[in-house]
Amino acid sequence: MKTAQDKKKKAKLHALLFGAASISLYAAVFKFADPMVELYAKGGAYCLLPVSTVFLFSYVHGNFASNVWTALGIEASSSAGRKSDKAEKTQRKDTRSRATLKA
Amino acid sequence: MHDVLLDGARFVDLSLAGVLFLFFVGFVGGLVSGFIGSGGAFVLTPGMMSLGVPGPVAVASNMCHKFPKALVGALKRYKYGQVDIKMGLIVGVSAEIGVQIGIQVQKMILEQWGPAGSNLYVSFAFVFVLVTVGSFVMKDAINTKRNGGEEKVTNLAKKLQSIELWPMVNFKGSNIRISFWFTAPVGLAAGLLAATIAVGGFAGVPGMIYIIGMSSLMASATELVVAFVMGLGGTLIWAFYGMVDIRLTLIILAGSLFGVQLGAIGTTYVKDYVIKYVMATIMLIVAFSRGLAMPKYLKQLDAINWDASLISSMSKTSFGLMCFALGVGAFIILKSMVMGRRQERKMELAANSNA
After folding, report:
1. Is residue A103 part of a domain?
2. What pLDDT band is residue B11 in, cutting at 50, 70 and 90?
């Protein structure tokens, strides 16, 4: 079973890796900012460029941010998910009308 | 839009202060979005415009950061079992239709009364919708807290759920069975509001709570799916016209991806009614702020003749109040989160000492 310390250690490593990747991506964007802005503003089929770029950044930078919070010990409550489990176990009253046979 | 397209200077030079401002507002906006499902846009768009970014570019760049932020937030909250994907998709697609209707209404008003009339309409919609819905949500949050903090499904939602109107849809995530015809109007209203004031969640989340019957926790998390669907569709349209300034988008995204995950974590430490509190507080402050901006547009329409310096200071106060609304929301979230964590640790320590 993983201890909290192991989890933090793994998160630190991932934060470093994704952090390095994120910084590289941001550095690349700002190094080539002018041609990039021009290319992305061409419109038409080029509209896929900003969309795919933000997907890439949300994966890399999103993982970086997530691991930073975990490495800092800021995590969800241990009861997270239990509320929804409780909701799933509570059966909803079936209000549908049924065909009945009077014999 | 065509004029802006032809203008070579539509992409501004960014200063370090501007970059830091966008990163910070992105973070706070993300924190609020991760917690209540929406918010941030009402400060980000005018904030970018104050840096000299033209309106359409500010709206487009903001929207382009909104959908990946919503995606990351939705994934995080899905892990906590708070997202109803099916509901999010249905409401999201209906909201797309609402956005298109909202754009047509805006166009009609713009043609009829010009830019000042359009701005006045937006401000009036802000004040009317946010005061009405915000007061209702605030009253409900206070009552829920007084009654022990447990949320109850509204009578309206119970009634609508009992009506068998084809097609009935089963939402396993939120354990609700309701007709499609009662979920679609919620999406339409959210879309209409999004096209008018850029924050559809102020109609979408209360709609999912009070009309469909979801809990605040589920509704605010599901709103992130709605925001993803709406944001992706909107971005493709804006990007088609070349309006996205990718630098602005990525700077805001850098801050908001930290914020949205923190906000999502925060929801696991609070009771459902706290989400309503935060949302209602922000809505009411923003409504007041937009009320202060209305005399400017009334003067442009020659409807009032107030002193120009007074109107100018009212407009500045209006923007300051919007930032304040976001700050207050972030403060309540962080405070609730710290208190929740402290309480959980105390309970863990007590349980360990008993063992």
Report:
1. no
2. confident
Sequence-separated (6 or more) residues with CB below 8 Å from residue B80: A76, A80, A81, A84, B221, B264, B267, B268
Q: Assess whether the previous peptide bond of B167 is cis (omega < 30° from 0).
A: yes
For residue A99, being part of any structural domain is answered with: no
Residue A44: inside a domain: yes
- For residue A61, give the nearest of B76, B232, B257 by CB distance: B257
Q: Are the C-beta atoms of B279 and B137 separated by less than 8 Å?
A: yes
In terms of pLDDT, which residue wins out, B278 or B354? B278
Provide the 3-class DSSP secondary structure of residue B179. Answer: strand
Query: What pLDDT digit, counting tens, does each position of B102-154 carry?
Result: 888 888 888 888 888 887 888 888 889 889 999 999 999 999 999 888 889 99
pLDDT of residue A85: 52
Q: Which tokens belong to B78?
A: 């899905």
The answer to whether the CB of B234 falls within 8 A of the CB of B216 is no
- CB–CB contact B242 A84 (8 Å): no
The separation between CA B7 and the C-alpha centre of its own chain, rounded to angstroms, equals 31
Asked whether residue A50 is domain-assigned, the answer is yes
Amino acid identity of B237? I
**Percent of all residues in chain B with a pLDDT value above 90, rounded to a whole number:** 59
What residues make up the domain containing A16? 4-76
In total, how many domains does chain A have?
A: 1
At B3, the pLDDT band (50, 70, 90 cuts) reads very low
B58 and B11 Cβ atoms separated by less than 8 Å: no
A82-91, B169-178, B206-215, B296-305, range with the lowest pLDDT: A82-91
B/e letters for B71-97, b = 16+ CB within 10 Å, e = fewer, are bbbbbbbbebbbbbebbbbbbbbbbbe
Whether residue A81 and residue B81 make contact (CB cut-off 8 A), yes or no, is yes
Mark which residues 57-76 of A lie under 8 Å from B by CB.
57-58, 61-62, 64-66, 68-69, 74-76
